[in-house]
Amino acid sequence: MPEPSEQFGPIRVQRSGGIATVVIDNPPVNASSWDVRRGLLTAIEQMSADPSVSGIVLIGAGKTFIAGADIKEFDGPLRDPQMPAVIAAVEACAKPVVAAIHGAALGAGYELALGCDARIVAADAIVGLPEVMLGIIPGAGGTQRLPRLVGLSAAIDLITAGRRVKANEAVALGMVDAMSTGDLHADAVQLARSVQGRKRRLSELDVPAESDADIAAAADRAIGRAKGAAAIVEAITAIQKAATLPFAQALAEERATFQRLRQSTEAAAKRYLFFAERDAFRVPGIEHARARAVTSVGVVGAGTMGAGIAICFLDAGLPVTLIERDRNALDAGLARIRSTYQRMVDTGRIDSATMAQRLARVTPSTDLAALAGADLVVEAVFEDIAVKQTVFRELDRVLKPGAILGSNTSYLDLDVLAREISRPGDVIGLHFFAPANVMRLLEVVRGAQTAPDVLATALAVAKAIRKLPVVARVCEGFIGNRIYSAYRTQCEFMLEEGALPADVDAAITSFGFAMGPFAVTDLSGLDIAWRTRQRLALIRDPKARYSDVLDKLCEAGRLGRKAGKGWYSYPEGGRRGVPDDAVRAIVEDASRRRGITRVQMTPGQIQARALAAIVNEATLLLAEAIAARPSDVDLVLVNGYGFPSQHGGPLFWASRQPRAEIEAGLNALAASVGHGFRRGDVGKVLDQFKT
Ligand code: T1G
Fold it and tell me: Which of 31, 53, 401, 592 could disulfide-link 70, Cβ–Cβ 3.0 to 4.6 Å?
C-alpha cells in the first residue's frame, strides 16, 4: 500500500493513481468509536471534494474491517457524528466507494459497507448484523439496505438470527459483490476503478419482489426463535418497513428504535455478558503462565458425555484417542459420535467429506496405554470417586511427563483425585455440560495444586474448541451445580409450603427460564440428585431442614422422563409432562408430616424465593473465592443453567432490582431454611455493579 498522505485520528488516507484508500486503524477490532466516526467523515468529505480522487476504498488495518459500533460507548449518549451521518456522506459522495473486507464486518461495520457502492471480501471474512444478540437492532441502515440486496425474508432470517456469514455464502447470498483472489487491497482498487463514475446507492434500489407468504413465513420463523426477546420482534417490524415506507422515513424510525432499545435493561444485560465473556479468559495470577502445546487428546469413557467431549476436539481439528473398558462400550461410543455427525450432515451443517475427516481422526482403544503420547486426557467415566481414582492412578502410570489430566466430574472433589497421583499439579477439572458438543460453557476447575501453566492451557484449549471457560475453585458442585442445588432445594421447600411443581415451573418460566426446575430434573433424571443426597446424607446437619419429597418420588420409581414419570407423568412416552395427583399426594403428605399448613403462593413470591436462593449462594461462593468475580457466576448460570440472558445473570439482575425487594426475598429465604441458614453479604456484591 502507498505511503499515507493524510491522518484523521485513527483514520489514515493513502493515495494511488486517483484511488484514495481510507484505512481504519483502531485496534483491536477497529470498532467504530467516536474518533473513528469523526475521522471517517472528515476523510470521506475531503476525498469527495478532491478532484484528483476518482474512487475510494475503505479497508481495516490489522486483523479485521470494522467489527461493529464501539459497544463501550452504549451506556451513555452517543456523540456526533454518529454512523448514519458517516454513511450518508459515503452515499452523498459522487465517486464510487468500495468496502474491502477482511476479518469481521459486523453491525455498524457491515452497515458502512452496505452504504458503499460495492463490497469485496477476503476468504477469511465474516459479515453480518448480530445486533439482536446485544438486545438491539441495527441502527445505521442495516434493516433498510440489506433487504434491498437480499430480499425481505432473507434479511429477516439473517438479522433476527444475528448470523455471521462466511465469505463464500455472503457472495452466494448477494450480501457482497466479489471475493478477492488474494491481494484484497489491490482487488478493491481494481474494483473501484472498474466502477468509476458509477454510483450504486442501495438506498435508491427497490426491495426485490417476493410473495407475502415467504415474508410471513420468515417472520414466523423469527418469532419462533424470539422466546420473548424484544429486539427480534422490533427487528422484524423495522425490516418490513423497507417495503412499505420511504427510505428516509424508515431509516429514521430504525434509528429511533435502536436508540430506545440501546437504553433498555435487556441491552445493558447483553452488553454486560459480552464483556464478561472476554473477562472470563483473564485469570488473575497466571498472566505470565505459558500454555502447554496440545496437539493430541485422549478421552476416557465414551458414554454420552465422553462422546460429546470427543466431538468437541474433533471439530477443532485435533486427533482423539477414545478409550472404553471393553469393545462393546467402545463400539457404542463410536456409534454415538458417528450418529451425531450423520445428523449434522443430514441438516446441512457439515458435508460428508468433513464427517469422514473427523471420524478418521478417532483412534479407538480399550487399552489406556494407547494414551502414552497424549498431551491432554479428559476422563468422563462414571461419577463415582473410587472409579475415577482408579482411572487416575492408571493414567498417572501411562501418560508422558507434561501431559495434562482433566476430569469431567461435575461434583466430586478434584483435590482428592489429584492427591492420588504423582503429578497433582497436572490435574484440572474440565466440566462440560450436556450435550458437550453443543453447550458452550466449560467450568474449568482449579485444584489446590493445579499449576498455573496447566490452567493457562485449559483456557487456551477452551478457546480452541470454541468453549466459554469459567474458572472455579473446588467445592461441592463448583459454581453451577452448587448454586443450582440451593435453588432446587428452595423450590422443594416451597412445595411443602403450598406450591405444586407446575406452579413453581410456571413462575420460573414466566421469569424467562426455558424450563422450570422440576421439568429440568425430570429431563436429567431424579436419580442423579438422589444419589448425591444419599452420598451427602452422612455429613448432613440433622437439625437442618430437609425435604424428602424427591426421595419419596424416587422410592416410588418416579425417576423422571426416562421412567415415564417423575415430578410429572409422561403419557405414551411423550415429551410434555402432565401434573400427577400421585405427586400432589406425596407433596401434601410431606406438609402434613412436617406440620405445615399449605398456603397458595403467588408467582411473584415463588420467583423471589427461588432467585434469592440463587443470589445468596452466589454471594457465599464469591466470598469463598470459588468464583473470581460476579460476572463469572452470571456467565455460568446463563450459559449452563438456562438463566435468561435478557436479565444478564442472577447478580446483574439483582443489581438492577430495588434493594428492599432483594432483602425481602432473602428474609423469606432465611425464614424457610431456618437452622443453619448462611446469609451472604449480598449488598457488598451488588455494590460492585455500577447502575
Ligand atoms: N466494541 C467494543 N469492543 C469490542 C467490540 C465492539 N464492538 N468487539 C470486540 N471488542 C473488544 C473485546 O471486548 C476485546 O477486548 C477485544 O475487542 C477483542 O475481542 C449501529 C449498534 C469481532 C468476532 O456484535 O464478535 O454495531 O477483552 O476477544 O475473539 O447497528 O469481538 O481484549 O479488552 O472478542 O478475535 C455489533 C462484537 C456491535 C461484534 C473478534 N458487533 N465483537 O473476536 O476477539 S452493535 C458485534 C465480536 C452495532 C450498529 C450496532 C468479536 C469479533 P479486550 P474478542 P475475537
Answer: 31
Instruction: Using alpha carbons, select from 438, 450, 439, 467 the residue that is nearest to residue 407.
Output: 450
- The CA angle 32-33-35, to the nearest 5 degrees, is 110
Q: Which residue has a Cα nearest atom 46 of ligand 1?
A: 68
- Whole-angstrom CA distances from 584 to 282, 579, 587, 673 are 48, 8, 5, 22
Residues carrying an active site annotation: 111, 131
Provide the β-strand partners of residue 128.
106, 164
Strand order, beta sheet including 164-166: 104-106, 126-128, 164-166
- Enumerate the H helices of 498-629 as residue ranges: 501-511, 517-524, 526-537, 549-555, 581-594, 603-623
> What is the per-residue pLDDT for 533?
86
Q: Nearest Cα to 621, choosing from 608, 609, 634?
A: 634
Residue 1: per-residue pLDDT: 52
Report the residue among 24, 26, 29, 466 best suited for mutation to probe ligand 1: largest number of ligand atoms under 8 A from its CB. 29
Residue range 642-689, pLDDT digits in tens: 999 999 999 999 999 999 999 999 999 999 999 999 999 999 999 999
Ligand 1 pocket list (CB less than 6 A): 28-29, 31, 67-72, 83, 104, 106-108, 111, 130-131, 134, 136, 138-140, 142, 275, 278
CB–CB of 385/412 below 8 Å?
A: yes
* Centroid of ligand 1 to alpha carbon of 540 (angstroms): 47
Which portions of the chain are predicted below pLDDT 70? 1-4, 690-691
Q: How far is the CA of 613 from the centre of ligand 1 (A)?
A: 33
Atom index in ligand 1 nearest the CA of residue 262 equals: 21
C-alpha cell belonging to residue 488: 432446587
Query: In the block, which residue shows the cell 468529505?
Result: 45
- Helix intervals (H) in 93-134: 108-115
Q: What's the 267 CA to ligand 1 centre distance in angstroms?
A: 15
